[in-house]
Structures are given as C-alpha cells and as structure tokens.
Write a structure and sequence with these properties.
CATH class: Alpha Beta
Helix content: 25-40%
Number of helices: 6
Largest sheet: 6 strands, mixed
Structural class: alpha/beta
Oligomer: single chain
Strand content: 15-25%
Number of strands: 6
CATH topology: Rossmann fold
Length: about 160
C-alpha cells in the first residue's frame, strides 16, 4: 500500500504539533518515519510550499518520501492529480480531511482516511492500516489438551 499524506492537513490534527511551529514538518516526519518502521508501508507526505521550503523539491528521509508543492500549486492539487493518474488505485491510500481531496480519491477509486484517524494511529503506536492482523487466525482448532491447559491458566469459573 502506498500512502499519500496531506502533510499540513495532518499536522492540524496532531495534538502535539502546531502549524505555526517552524519545525512542524520535521516533527511530523519523525512520527512518519517511526510509523514506516512499524508498518513497512510506503509513505509519501506532500506539503504546501512556503517560506522555508524549496518549492517543487522532493527528498527521502527514513524511508519516507517528502514532496513540497511547486509555487502556485497546493498539496491538495498534487494529491488529486496523483490519484487521478494512478494506474493501480487500489494500491493507494490518501490521508486528508479535505473534502475535495477525499472526493478526488473516491472518484478515482482510491481509499481515503481522515487525518484525525491517521493521527490517532501515529500517536498510539499502532499500525492499523485496514489490513487484517497477520497474527490473527480464523477458526483456530484447539485439541482437548490445549483447551484444558488454557482453562488451567485462565480458570474455568465462567464456563
């Protein structure tokens, strides 16, 4: 899964970050690098251009691609363009609470996640990406001995 993240939109939903902090992008990137390490997801964060940015530039840090919108364009426009051009829309996930970005994603067949929900994942240390837990198994069959062992450990008072 390749995640396209509206950087400033996400910062606005992070309780420990502020958009008026000159280091807000680097602080968000630190959270995203940790998330990437936990989940292995491919992450691209796109920021609007501003005074401290190199418009139109890209860099990679900790496995996370960081892109700055060129002058005269917004992160929203870049994300919308990327989802419209996606060859495999099912392989993308957009993180933004901006309605226009969510609409562009939906029309292109790309899933989206509100920034507030993704912020909770970042802060909780969780890696819930909507995919099934690889450790979870359905219809696990236990032997009678295994059941007895679990009942010995946890008690069978409720059964």
């Amino acid at each position: 899964m390749h995640w396209l993240i509206d950087g400033h939109n996400l910062i606005g939903h992070m309780p420990n970050l502020r958009l008026d902090d000159p280091n807000d992008e680097e602080k968000l990137l630190a959270h995203l690098v940790r998330y990437k390490a936990r989940t292995g997801q491919r992450l691209t964060v796109i920021f609007d251009s501003g005074a401290g940015y190199r418009p139109g530039s890209s860099k990679k840090q900790g496995g996370v691609t960081v892109q700055f919108a060129p002058a005269g364009q917004t992160a929203d426009q870049l994300i919308a363009r990327r989802v419209r051009r996606a060859k495999n829309p099912q392989a993308l996930m957009v993180v933004s609470s901006d309605r226009a970005v969510q609409t562009a994603a939906r029309l292109a067949g790309v899933r989206s996640l509100p920034a507030a929900e993704f912020a909770r994942q970042l802060l909780s240390g969780g890696g819930n990406t909507g995919a099934a837990d690889p450790g979870a198994q359905a219809n696990v069959q236990l032997s009678a001995d295994e059941v007895d062992e679990w009942l010995d450990i946890f008690g069978d008072d409720q059964f």
